[in-house]
Amino acid sequence: MATGTELLKEVLTATGGEVENLPDNLVSTLLKAITASIGENGGAGIQKIEQTTTSTADGGNNVLTITLTDGTTTTFTVKNGSKGSAGAAGKDGVAGINGTNGKDGTNGVDGKSAYQYAQDGGYTGTEEAFGAALAQLLADGTGETT
Q: Which of 96, 95, 137, 130 is nearest to 115 (CA)?
């Protein structure tokens, strides 16, 4: 039969040192370990169990110190396992609402007029003559000036 110390080590190793939310089968094993420990130590009971060394590193050691009612202590070292691999990426969240529109920009510089482009292209007449020629084109719809 396993000693109380062996049973305690089994429980603490199986739980990674977490004793707050033990599964029922480990609670039963822990109770057996406490009972056996009391018998092994001449009737002394467990006064307190405290974690005296804490490690969160892979392979790190956590030490639990058990103090009995007769003042004697014993320690248990629980070795951390390796961290698991990263889980899959979660689903994208719902799209957020659009923000407010920004301010209008400043107006650009005025562009060239049709007359100015005509001058650049070699037209030598006046702006009034150019305007009259455009008006005639629009009026007769031929696209030719006379």
A: 130
Environment class of residue 127 by beta-carbon count within 10 Å: exposed (0-12), middle (13-18) or buried (19+)? middle
Q: Would you give per-residue pLDDT tens digits along the chain (146 residues)?
A: 556 556 666 666 665 655 555 555 655 666 666 666 666 656 677 778 888 888 888 888 888 888 887 888 888 787 877 777 888 999 999 999 999 999 999 999 999 998 999 999 999 999 999 989 888 888 877 656 55
So where are the chain's domains? 4-79, 112-146
Token pair of 45 as six digits: 């009971």
